[in-house]
Amino acid sequence: MRRKDREITSYDKMLEIMQSCDCCRIGLKDKDSVYILPLNFGYEEKSGKLTLYFHGASEGKKIDADTLLYIHDNKIDLIKQQNTASFEMDTKHQLVEADVACSYSYLYQSIMGKGKISLVDDPEEKINGLECVMLHYSNNNTWKFNEEVLKRVAVIKI
Fold it and tell me: CA-CA distance, 109 to 132, in Å (whole number)?
């Protein structure tokens, strides 16, 4: 980080910033470029270990042959192929105006990191991941999940 005076090093403050974010972007290497996905997310913190959970359909634009994220019709699974992903989320955007163009600025808070990425197959962990996502947006983690829907939904974790 260039501006060390603005760097946040407090783990609790990072969790506070994360709580105020409503979108997390994950970046995956796709041949000679990077594929970036904006996703809804939830997270779980246990004994200082942070796990991010994301959800999406197991078919469609986000996770299928079109994006090469999910094994489907003999396509490459980027998640299993590379094993790690980067993520970024940001919040509290504020434009700082000035009289001179180059003096304009933009304030925000962001969290960036990387970790091991995988698709969640275990039904109990899948439910836990979905509960984390729902808790992040609704402040409620006592949802019931339809078994047929659970089979079709993809849960990703970092």
Answer: 22
